[in-house]
Amino acid sequence: MIKITDVEFKLLAEYIKEHSGIHLKNEKKTLLVSRLSHILSELKMDDFMTYYKHLQDDQDGKKLSGLIDKVTTNHTYFMREAEHFSYFAESVLPFWENNNKNNKDLRIWCAASSTGEEPYTLAMILEDYFKNKNEKWDKKLLATDLSLNVLNQAEKGIYASEKIALLPKSWTLNYFDKISSDFYQVKSSLRREVIYRRFNLLESIFPFKKKFHVIFCRNVMIYFDSETKEQLIHKLYEQLEYGGYLFIGHSESINKERTKFKYIKPSVYRKI
């Protein structure tokens, strides 16, 4: 295995933090070497300094995307932290249905969509909730991620049968096509309900034309240091409509003394 010097680790850690917000401490040095050794081998590179210089010429974001894929887990599944989805269906949707009757407009952002399980879960909940409504609602579901690889997987919407085994049977029947004995694909009609885009949460300016009614930004800030986390929370606050909801991961929290968000329940906040 190729060894990494202190200087090389420092340069790579700074590059990763600058471009993704992920904060790698010194104790992660062995992990970084383990995760990146395969990339260096594929590129026929003998040291990490050469790889660092290789990253400097990243015209389309693919090199950064490949790096981030290696240093993050991208662990997700349908109905992850299920109480969030229950609250979304039972409290959040009725609130916006009653308070946005004039516009009949609902904008939702999954800010770390990974391989698509979270946005598709939300899309199925939305379909179930609005299918018997007499009034037509304009529902927009944006899903973003820094990784091109996971976005590509999400857009295809193909999942192993065990991935959807615990979903309600009605969802399996209504929203998936069986494409082989081991795989299912999200129906094209539901896939069209989700807009996938590559986006870096570290961008200083968020280019969205309208604000969102709900933001899911879960299990991302666990990788950030306190300063980066607070900056992101502020930007998410600015991207929400008043009354809008923010969902974060159960292992994450927001400092109540340093935010305008109102605490609703564990890992759920509102812009009031």
Q: If you had to describe this structure to a student in words, what would you say it looks like?
A:
A hairpin with a 2-residue loop joins strand 9 and strand 10. The chain has a 7-stranded mixed β-sheet with strand order 6-2-1-7-8-10-9. A 3-stranded antiparallel β-sheet has the order 3-5-4. The protein has 10 helices and 10 strands. The longest helix is centred in the N-terminal third of the chain and has 18 residues. It folds into 2 domains: 66 residues, Chemotaxis Receptor Methyltransferase Cher, domain 1; 189 residues, Rossmann fold (3-Layer(aba) Sandwich), CATH 3.40.50.150. The chain is of the alpha/beta class.
Q: End-to-end distance, in Å? A: 53 Å
The strand count comes to 10
Share in helix: 40-55%
What Rg is obtained from the alpha carbons, in whole angstroms? 20 Å
Q: What is the average of the pLDDT values?
A: 92
CATH architecture of the largest domain: 3-Layer(aba) Sandwich
Strand order of the largest sheet: 6-2-1-7-8-10-9
Please trace the helix and strand order, writing H or E for each element.
Answer: HHHHHEHEHEHEEHEEHEEE
User: Would you give the CATH topology of the largest domain?
Assistant: Rossmann fold
CATH superfamily of the largest domain: Vaccinia Virus protein VP39
Total domains: 2
DSSP summary: helix tally: 10
Spans with pLDDT under 50 lasting ≥5 residues?
none
Shape annotation: globular
Query: How does the helix and strand content classify structurally?
Result: alpha/beta
Give the percentage of residues in beta strands: 15-25%
Largest sheet: 7 strands, mixed
CATH C-level label of the largest domain:
Alpha Beta
